[in-house]
């Protein structure tokens, strides 16, 4: 209990700090142009989420974070919640990297899928060395500690991942859990999970279960049995890693539907489709349409933001290329969701920018303001943003930008100078200005940034 209170406090603190920072930044300024037409907002209009797997070590990259924040309204930590990341030594838990992702996501109002509690892979070797009795208590303790830490923060947990064998046998996969605890380990994991966080949806997640086949039949039988016996399960995740050897199955939608008909939600949890151009776009469009056609398909997660960091990077399986430019697959996914098909719903060039403000120097009756302009996921050739200084402040001079004034002389619109309008995706430039306070020390307010 004490432990759980500490965990909650940590989570609350983390979120609190994020919101204070957000409030400070927003009050002074930064607005990202138009998240109005994005994968996340288009999915939300259909009552669903559209998410991405995220790696904590890329969050500091501006183009990565701005693409994530603009397009997605759900995240799954790609590796940071796995057993080897959270409990590499028995009984000693590490949450810092996963906390970073969860803090970022909750600060932006995104849902988080927890991935994953019990899996044979990325499992520290100490676990495989345990006796059955010890393994059972280690498994239940792992589930309890990790779920307690994130209690209230997680929309759905992949409680058990990949417990079935590939191929036609329909058998369970050999793993320390299966081999020592038998089939019952799955049920036990779900029961423990429900007792820890009754508000989180509990999912079984697997791959090569996307169409009707021996493996998905075996998972289907398990879910049916769980529902019949009241074992807590709320959702089934379909990883959906596709390539030419493992294409989007023609009965994908029918398979999602038959699981939904058992009374569980279905989710596409790790979507990536190797390929390029129109063929890849068609596949993405079809996957989105299949989910939309199944009312209990609650959302789609792509397994990464950019091809650059995909676990199958050479297959370029994602929606944004290595320069964060939206691919035809992006347009197909967005169009299938009912959106315009262009990032940010802009002029079709995908040009967007965002601005943020800092006071670089201040003195008794004046200050120097600095505005950083950052291009979104497409290259831009021009930018423009508003700056309002609170009366009776007066802007004395500006540099690295070309200002014009509204009739009242309080709002200046600053366009790029001749030499700093062109920015690569994610690249930044800045302009500055000197303000006379005239007795008012308040910070200026920025308008939205627009780009072409
Ligand atoms: C992958 C990650 O993307 C890689 O970074 C890591 O090296 C291995 O795991 N099924 C899953 C995911 O459930 O957790 C896997 O993620 C991909 C296959």
Number of helices: 13
What are the secondary-structure elements, in order, as H or E? HHEHEHHEHHEHHEHEEHEHEHEEEEEEEE
Low-confidence stretches: 1-36
Largest sheet: 8 strands, parallel, barrel
Based on DSSP secondary structure assignment, what is the total number of beta strands? 17
Percentage of residues assigned to helices: 25-40%
Strand content: 15-25%
Strand order of the largest sheet: 1-2-3-4-5-6-8-9
Radius of gyration: 25 Å
Small molecules held by this entry: (3S,4R)-3-hydroxy-2-oxopiperidin-4-yl beta-D-xylopyranoside
User: What spatial form do the alpha-carbon principal axes imply?
Assistant: elongated
List the helices and strands and how they pair.
Layout: H1 2-28, H2 39-45, E1 49-54, H3 62-71, E2 74-77, H4 83-86, H5 96-107, E3 111-118, H6 125-128, H7 132-149, E4 156-161, H8 176-181, H9 184-196, E5 201-206, H10 214-229, E6 235-238, E7 241-242, H11 252-260, E8 265-273, H12 277-293, E9 297-302, H13 328-336, E10 353-363, E11 366-375, E12 383-388, E13 394-399, E14 401-405, E15 411-416, E16 428-436, E17 445-451
Helix pairs in contact: 1-5, 7-9, 11-12, 12-13
What does this structure look like?
- The protein is an alpha/beta fold.
- It is 34% helix and 25% strand.
- It contains 13 helices and 17 strands.
- It has helices spanning 2-28, 39-45, 62-71, 83-86, 96-107, 125-128, 132-149, 176-181, 184-196, 214-229, 252-260, 277-293, 328-336; strands spanning 49-54, 74-77, 111-118, 156-161, 201-206, 235-238, 241-242, 265-273, 297-302, 353-363, 366-375, 383-388, 394-399, 401-405, 411-416, 428-436, 445-451.
- Strand 5, helix 10 and strand 6 (235-238) form a beta-alpha-beta unit.
- Bound molecules: (3S,4R)-3-hydroxy-2-oxopiperidin-4-yl beta-D-xylopyranoside.
- (3S,4R)-3-hydroxy-2-oxopiperidin-4-yl beta-D-xylopyranoside is lined by residues 78-79, 161, 239, 270, 311.
